[in-house]
Amino acid sequence: MKRKLGQLESQLLAFAQMRKSRTLASGDLRETLHLTAKQERELFSRMARGGLIARVRQGLYLVPARLPLGGAWSPNEPEALNALMRDAQGRYQICGPNTFNMYGFDEQVPVRVYAYNNRISGERKIGAVEITLIKVSDARLGDTTVVSASDGEQAVYSSRVRTLVDAVYDWSRFNGIPRGYQWIQSELKAGRVSAAELVACTLRYGDMGTIRRMGALLEKQGVEKSLLRKLERALTPTSGPIPWIPSRAKRGLVDKRWGVVMNEGK
User: Does 90 fall in a domain?
Assistant: First the structure.
């Protein structure tokens, strides 16, 4: 862990502050600090290893807003994700386990950030921040809320309703079924979301499986028939029913309206 800034390290941080830029790229320092390409590369690498800056990708680094007072620095989650997506010129929204915790559905605090986005797929690490990037089409981005961190950095999160829909839609990735059903029931009962909001979000961002499962769930909750008909009209013919709980054996009564095998407790 680096404790004392050398002259070049101090100059790099001062230069970033002067430019009012949180990122520096290969080539930015050569003229100002009179460095060769090799010297610049070694400076970036040395500072990243010392925890003074964070590597976003090869040739691009995130710099702290203020000079660190000794010790290592790492960006927070919004800083890291915003830097990565600005560079990729993409859109994102934090989702899954992060929003499950944010809205109080799950008490477990995720150790990494999960984000739908329209540019990158895979794992990234920026400083101490570990990110799982889930690439989706532009059409699957939306229904979001913007949250400001204590330092003013803003991050885009899936909305409460969208989070509930994605618990059903992306059940295998986020372990969202059957617990997502319980969350939806509780949120409806408490009035924090409405059946109309769930139907609209399901039709816009769900797939056929999501529509079938959401229809069966909302019918069990006794929602308005007109809302159920909206979901029903979006269904396409199917050769066979799908399981209510995908991880369990496909045995049980079949809800013919929705094409779902109600395999609770099986």
Answer: yes
Tens-place pLDDT, residues 147-158 = 998 788 999 999
Looking at the structure, do residues 82 and 147 belong to the same domain, yes or no? yes
- Domain boundary pick from 131, 158, 185: 158
Domain count within the chain: 3
Does residue 166 share a domain with residue 246?
yes
Residue 67 domain-assigned? no
Please indicate, yes or no, whether residues 141 and 168 belong to a single structural domain of this protein.
Answer: no
How many whole angstroms separate alpha carbon 114 and alpha carbon 23? 22
Taking 60 as the threshold, does the pLDDT of residue 266 lie above it? no
Give me the domain span that covers residue 111.
Answer: 77-158
Question: Is 68 domain-assigned?
Answer: no
For residues 48 and 140, give the distance between their C-alpha atoms in angstroms, rounded to a whole number. Answer: 35
Q: Say how many CA atoms lie within 13 Å of 108 toward its Cβ.
A: 7
Residues 16-57: tens digit of each pLDDT: 999 989 999 999 999 999 999 999 999 999 999 999 999 999
